[in-house]
Amino acid sequence: MTIERTRIFPEMPDFMAELAPDPWTEPFWRAAGEHRLVAPRCTNCGTFRMPPVPFCHTCRHQDVEWVELSGRGTVFTFVITRRALIPQLEDAVPNVVAVIDLEGAPGCRLVSNVLEVDPEAVEIGLPVVVAWDDVNETVTIPRFVPDESRS
Predict the structure, then answer these.
(1) How would residue 36 be classed by pLDDT, with cut points 50, 70 and 90?
(2) DSSP string covering 76-124
(3) What is the pTM of this model?
(4) Closest to 14 in 3D by CA, of 83, 80, 89, 96
(5) Do residues 136 and 14 lie in contact, with contact meaning Cβ atoms separated by under 8 Å?
(6) At a CB cut-off of 8 Å and minimum separation 6, what does 34 contact?
(7) From CA 99, how far away is CA 4, in angstroms rounded?
(8) What 8-state DSSP symbol labels residue 30?
(9) C-alpha distances out from residue 105 to 21, 42, 74, 80, Å
(10) Whether pLDDT at 58 is above 80
(11) Residues 25 and 52: beta-carbon distance below 8 Å
(12) Count helices and strands in the chain by DSSP H and E runs
């Protein structure tokens, strides 16, 4: 599979995207590098776990299967960051940090950004779709943009 690398959030400095995956999160980041959005589902009770953690919060089982998702979701909640916490983020504000309810994975939510939209136009329930931000050759971050096909 050939992945076309695209930097969609260039205002965010690369140093802000240093990863330190553990055995529970590594499959998520490996799939992201292939432009696939996945989530772990408990093999015992079927509960999705996001973020990936060692034990199911429903049945305490450890085994998971990684399910590929459509990449669609809706904004569950969000905040507009208007002030840079550090000087290197001046060019990255305002930006929208959102909790995305992931389609096809009940109860599974992912914290990310909503891009390519006026921050004032973002609202709870906004349909979004994943857009891959290839920060460098080893780090790809799922961000989200409005899903025009569901507007």
Answers:
(1) very high
(2) EEEEEE-S-SSGGGGGG-SEEEEEEEETTSTT-EEEEEE-SS-GGG--T
(3) 0.91
(4) 89
(5) yes
(6) 1, 3
(7) 26
(8) H
(9) 22, 12, 12, 26
(10) yes
(11) yes
(12) 1, 7
